[in-house]
Amino acid sequence: MISVQESSALFSLLSSEQRSFDQVMADFTSNFPSSLHFRICTAIATLLDDKPMLLPFQRLYGLCIIYQAYSSQEPSENPFISVLVNAASDDEGAKYERALVLQLLGSAGNKSTKEAFKLCATDYIKGFDSSAHAFPTRELLQEQYCSKVPREHYNSLFKNASVRNVIPDPDVPSQCDASSAEFDLQPGAKPKIGSGNRDEAIIGLLQNISLEGMEPSWIRPFPPRLPVQDGELVWLNPDNNHELLWDYGMCADTSRGAAVRDLIAKALKGPLAPTQQEQVLLELENDSKLVYHCGLTPRKLPELVENNPLIAVEVLIKLMNSPEISDYFTVLVNMDMSLHSMEVVNRLTTAVDLPTEFVHMYITNCISSCESIKDKYMQNRLVRLVCVFLQSLIRNKIINVQDLFIEVQAFCIEFSRIREAAGLFRLLKTLE
Question: To bridge 101 with a disulfide, which of 88, 145, 223, 265 should be the other Cys (CB 3.0-4.6 Å)?
Answer without folding.
Answer: 88
